[in-house]
User: Which sequence fits this backbone?
């Protein structure tokens, strides 16, 4: 199989299954996600926001530490399952992101 067939693209994401997502993440990262890779996979823009979610225990998947290793980790399969569940939840509810209008500070008009 070619390298390209293993790459998730926006077009492929709409039809991806949980097993495909799990396999793709595992091929890219191995059985364990940690550090920036974990943070980005979970959709956090900054390390501070990720650490806050961990501290407040608002993550719906198991995040853990490893002896003699820095940082926090999660199993790739758990992350894939959580991501897939989130995508299905939004697909079922029809929930869409809404964005506030952007104000142009110089003119006071909405962009």
Assistant:
């Amino acid at each position: 199989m070619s390298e390209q067939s293993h790459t998730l693209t926006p077009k492929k994401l709409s039809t991806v299954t949980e097993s495909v997502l799990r396999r793709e993440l595992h091929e890219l990262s191995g059985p364990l996600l940690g550090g920036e890779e974990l943070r980005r996979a979970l959709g956090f823009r900054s390390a501070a926001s990720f650490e806050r979610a961990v501290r407040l225990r608002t993550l719906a998947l198991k995040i853990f530490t490893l002896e003699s290793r820095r940082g926090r980790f999660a199993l790739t399969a758990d992350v894939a399952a959580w991501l897939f569940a989130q995508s299905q939840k939004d697909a079922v509810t029809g929930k869409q992101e809404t964005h506030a209008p952007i104000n142009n500070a110089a003119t006071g008009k909405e962009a």
Summary: The two ends are 46 Å apart (CA to CA).
